[in-house]
Structure formats: C-alpha cells, structure tokens
Design brief:
This protein is 0% helix and 63% strand. It is an all-beta fold. The protein has a ten-stranded antiparallel beta sheet, with no helix packed on it. Strands 8-9 form a two-stranded antiparallel sheet. The protein has a two-stranded antiparallel ribbon with strand order 12-13.
C-alpha cells in the first residue's frame, strides 16, 4: 500500500489581452494505491486512485488571446498488470477510468462541469510478447498489442464527440551477442490495419477542420549496440 501528494507548476504559452505573459499553471495531486507480486515476482499488479486539481489553466477568450482563468479536476482509477506467462510468453496490460471536468472557466461559465476535451473516460492497452525458446532461434522475439480509447469530447463546450478507437501494433526483434557487446535490432509496425481515427479535437470551438488525425500505418526500424 502506498500514497503520495505532489505539487507542481508549468509554464503557459501565449499572452493575455494586456500583452502580459500568462501565469504558470499549478497542480496538486493525490494518489493512493496497492501493489503486489506473485509467483516469485513473475506476476506484478498495481491498482491506484488519483485526484488532480489544476489552477490557472489557459483558456482562449478570443482568437489569439488567452487568460489563465480556468481550473480543472481529474480523478479516477488506474490498473496495471505485468507478468511472465511461461513458455516464452509475457504480457503487459493496463486500464484507466478517468473523470476529467472543467471546474472554473470565467470566459465561458457555461462550460463548468463539462468534460475536458480529448480525455477518454475509458482507455487501456495490452502487449503480448513471445521470445523463441528454440536454441536455433534464440534472441528472436515477436510482439503484438493494442491501444484503445473510448469516445472523447472534442471541445470545451462538449458540442461534439470524437469516436473511440482501437489501434493494433506489432514488432519483431532480434538480439545477438558479439563478444562482450550486445546488438539489438527491432522493427515496429504501428497501426497495422491502417485504421483512420482522431487522437485530438479542437478544444476551443467546434471547427472540426482542426481535429488531429492519428498516424497511418507506420514502420520504424532501430538498431542498438551495447558495449
């Protein structure tokens, strides 16, 4: 069992109507949870509750002009599980329930209580990996996983929603010992089904031309040499 409290701040981009820099955004976070491990550490899990309050959230009052008159609250539950399944298989999975809402908006008071844009109430991911056990294929591994996000509000007024989506990724990797060094090569394929989806909307108005689409099918290769 654990708990913590964190205070933080960050800079806000933009200028106020008077031309002054915006006040920094401040945050206060509380978290409490449970951690455990089983089967001699082969299986680990974490369950946590979090509550975050943000002040001086920048709010667009008109085109090109922002003011730090906003506040937001985010709270929910996160769960993570990781473990060795035996036979060369391993699994990592996570899930989050997030209730994120606007708690102060002096420019547009009608938004108080609305959900924060671009924050899914339900989200999660899973990744399954297989490391070949046959000595001939030692060092070779395959992976496949999925990331999912539920429907999200597209703007502060909650006037439209972005649909939920599931993106599937995969990978293949190979590690080879070169004397005292280790060479690792990996090929990742993201969004293997080339699914069309949106990762973010326009938070200040319902101009859907500003919605941000997700990346199409993407292939990335990497090589790492450890001495």
């Amino acid at each position: 069992m654990y708990g913590n409290r964190v205070e933080g701040f960050g800079t806000n981009n933009g200028r106020s109507e008077s031309g002054q820099p915006l006040k920094p955004e401040t945050a206060e976070q509380y978290e409490a949870g449970l951690k455990g491990e089983w089967f001699k550490g082969d299986l680990t899990a974490n369950l946590a509750y979090f509550h975050i309050d943000k002040q001086n959230v920048a709010t667009l009052v008109r085109e090109g002009i922002s003011e730090t008159i906003g506040a937001a609250r985010s709270q929910g539950i996160e769960m993570d599980v990781a473990g060795q399944l035996g036979g060369g298989f391993s699994l990592i999975a996570s899930y989050a329930f997030t209730d994120a809402r606007i708690t102060q908006d002096g420019a547009l008071s009608g938004n108080i209580g609305h959900r924060l844009p671009n924050v899914a109430e339900h989200s999660g991911s899973t990744w399954l990996k297989y490391a070949f056990q046959n000595p001939t294929l030692s060092g070779l591994n395959l992976g496949i996983g999925a990331y999912l996000a539920g429907k999200r509000e597209g703007d502060n007024a909650n006037s439209y929603q972005l649909p939920g989506y599931v993106r599937v990724d995969t990978s293949v990797g190979y590690s080879l010992r070169l004397g005292a060094s280790k060479l690792t090569t990996q090929l990742n394929v993201y969004n293997i089904f080339d699914k069309r989806y949106f990762v973010a909307g326009e938070p200040y108005n319902a101009n859907r031309a500003w919605n941000m689409p997700g990346d199409p099918l993407t292939v990335i290769g990497s090589m790492k040499l450890e001495f």
